[in-house]
Write a structure and sequence with these properties.
By secondary structure, the protein is of the alpha+beta class. The protein is built from ten helices and nine strands. α4 (128-140) runs antiparallel to α8. The structure holds flavin mononucleotide.
Amino acid sequence: MVEKLLSAAVAAPSIHNTQSWRFRLLPDSRTFEVRAVPRRSLRQIDPNGRALHVSVGAAVFNLRTAVREFGWEPVVRLLPRPAEPALLAAVRLAGPARGGRSSDRALYDAIWRRHSSRLPFSPRPVPPEQLTELAEGAHAEGALLQIPDGDEAHRLLALTAEAEHRNTADPDRRDESRRWIRPPQDGPLGLPAEALGPQDARGRLPAAVFEPQPTLAVLSTAHDRRADWLRAGQALQRILLLATADGLRASLLHQALEWPDLRWELRDPEAGPGHVQMLIRLGYGPAGADSPRLAPVEVLESPAGA
Ligand SMILES: Cc1cc2nc3c(=O)[nH]c(=O)nc-3n(C[C@H](O)[C@H](O)[C@H](O)COP(=O)(O)O)c2cc1C
């Protein structure tokens, strides 16, 4: 069971597939501790670790979902020991899982099928009731998901294009990004070129949006502390799994979040305060390619002193 739980956790998305997470099982308290791996953080692109926390939050959501699938109730504490900043979450397997097994089962199944799809989507619109379901999923995790109208979507894409332009012009960020594009035979970390889609053939990182009327979703939180980033990651993963279960594909457009001024501009001024945590592109289309993952044994560490 431990192996399956960890396989589920590491199937989560992470920025540049850095998989900056490690797990420790405390058998006496039936608790998984989830820690960051600082040496795999992106110092240029993500200097304050926000994207790392979002990634780890997504892995925590998968772990929660898998724990329920195995019949336990997951009890999550975020940042449980402030004196230990690398300890991002603790997930305790409490008594038997309560209610809702069939919807959980759909999410659990989606863990293994979800991949980022950076390929063109079909013109088929996403039904409003599916978008409502995703927004409810975000809300259940303490986050907000908004669907911008056409003009607003194009404004957000223009900010993304501006960020992409800056990223390419900045040698440090460009080098850091390129270091994470690796052939799968080089190991289980980083992005294989095949996963990046058509844009990358021209030597650029993927912010490709091919649809004339793209469906975008903006994920935000009321505050912007470390716990909010972890909540945003859990909300993101709930949205992505719900979308996968509904037959939708998704890719993430994070570029504009990597520049404080552009991230601020991503906010919908009409929608009141809030901090944007992710831009998600949704639609129907081909599945994305697999990206490699660390094996469960590679992310499981022994308890201190064991
Ligand atoms: C915080 C975060 C930021 C990401 N930013 C981008 C991005 O800007 N562009 C992109 O195409 N994918 C982005 N991704 C997706 C990752 O590249 C992807 O999850 C990872 O390579 C694993 O592949 P998979 O999603 O197919 O499992 C991001 C993921 C996370 C969690």
